[in-house]
Amino acid sequence: MAEVICDDRATREINAEIKRRIAQGETELLIKTPNARHNLGVAILQPAHITFDGSVGYYCAGMIDGPTVEIKGSAGWGLAESMMDGSVIVEGSAGNGAAASIRGGTVVIHGDAAARLGVSMKGGLILVGGNCGYMAGFMGQKGTLIVCGNAGEAFADSMYEAVCFVGGKIAELGNDAVIEKPTADELTFLESTLSRYLPQKIDAIQNFKKIISGRKLWNFDKKERAIWREAL
Amino acid sequence: MCGIVGFLDKTKNEKSKIGQIILKMLMALGRRGPDSAGVALYGNRCNGDMVLRIKLGEKGNFEGKGDAIAEQVQALGTVDEATTTAEYLRLVMNYQEDVRDLEHFIESVDEDIEVVSMGRNLEIVKQVGSPQNLDTTYSIKQFVGTHGIGHTRLSTESAVDLSHSQPFWAHGCPDLAIVHNGHITNYHKMRRCYEQRGIKFYTENDSEIIGVYLAEQFSKGLTLQEGLDASLIDLDGSFSYLAATPDAIGFAKDPFAFKPLLFTETDDFVAVATEEIAICSAFEGVYKVREAQAKEVRIWQR
Hints:
The complex is a heterodimer of chains A (232) and B (302).
Chain A: E1 2-5, H1 11-23, E2 28-32, E3 49-52, E4 65-71, E5 85-90, E6 106-109, E7 122-128, E8 142-147, E9 163-166, E10 177-180, H2 184-197, E11 209-213, H3 225-231
Parallel strand pairs in A: 1-2, 2-3, 3-4, 4-5, 5-6, 6-7, 7-8, 8-9
Antiparallel strand pairs in A: 9-11, 10-11
Chain B: E1 3-9, H1 18-28, E2 36-42, E3 50-55, H2 63-72, E4 78-85, E5 88-94, H3 99-107, E6 114-119, E7 122-128, H4 131-138, E8 147-153, E9 168-169, E10 177-184, H5 187-196, H6 208-219, H7 224-234, E11 237-245, E12 248-253, E13 262-265, E14 269-273, H8 276-282, E15 290-291, E16 297-301
Antiparallel strand pairs in B: 1-8, 1-14, 2-7, 2-8, 3-5, 3-6, 4-5, 9-10, 10-11, 11-12, 12-16, 13-14, 13-15
């Protein structure tokens, strides 16, 4: 496994080296001493396995398309923002706006996610082993968001066709979010997904609630002004 | 953008190297706020005497002014120590009366004079410039004690000078200090109400109101936890702030989680910071860190 040392080097230099090593044919990279620095491992477009040997700062693995990024610590704000494809796995917790606006791929957070998890997601899969904070799933257009623990306020607010599953309590549902019972197929999907990514959370399976859009905000009708007054 | 940090030693140790720890954390966040830096450090260094940090002016040589205040203040209590360093006079004195009387007395000597901090455990040092400069001028690395908070400032709306820097001591309430990252948007409205009741504001910095607000809650008999809880309703805008008292630190985060703040806790200590980079820089080893949630309030008591 090739090693890239961060130490005091410039972020641009570190990211350039990661890309250069992958271009040279390395398939496994270990990034040492990331020390919670920002903007590491962004815009990587090849399927390599990149491991960060510690916590990372803001915007780690943003805009990636293909690699597997493992973080042996926690992540700051904007983890995997706008990723197209690939996987991002965080051992610890993630800051605000994790997996915001992703279009594909998988983001796994073993610990907790802070506010605005997966906002405006347009595809992909997000899994959180712990709890998630305020306004997760806001305006989710497509994709799946799974939270094994509790969800914060304004959960799944103003969604389109994203689907959420929560194992614990939901502090408060967002506008136009409705709870449904997961179907048998969905339970099978949850079981296989959890056993693959978060096997230690498999026991929570019978408690999962499904949250989808009530579709009341999809089209404007002035007769329904009251709903809009509430939502806006 | 600002950087805030906090550290509390949970053990019985009263000689934790808090100056060094807070400085390391602040230096890691220096680029979040290059305008000014400051620390509020707590320890029982003066055997229960009152410690005052007094700003003598914004720039210049204040040796003579410092001596004059030290001389005059003897009328109110025995002065054990009086040292002038750069813009500050540090006074240690035996004083048991109302802190407001002492503060008014000192501040009436000259209009540039401001009591930056007062208490039996608290000492605040802040100045324009980087955290490193803070140590060069005031040797804060040498400070040992129990807990502390710190701030690096990127000014967005008010002046860049010593008085507008953070931490803010809550004037009139000994040993209460705060650091804040964000904007208090109902600042002007709240300030008008306080001013009508005769409360003096020293700066145009919206963060100052948090100290004033918490001091008011304490005067109503609320605890630190209750005061922080209440602030989630009474303060508008974006905030992650830390408050410290002689035996506790605590934080509150606004209902929309606009501003970052994360923390780690072990059996021995608690560290809170705007970014994890501050924790990585100050502590060796691996720590589990978690970002605080919206509306989250936590306090740690010694």
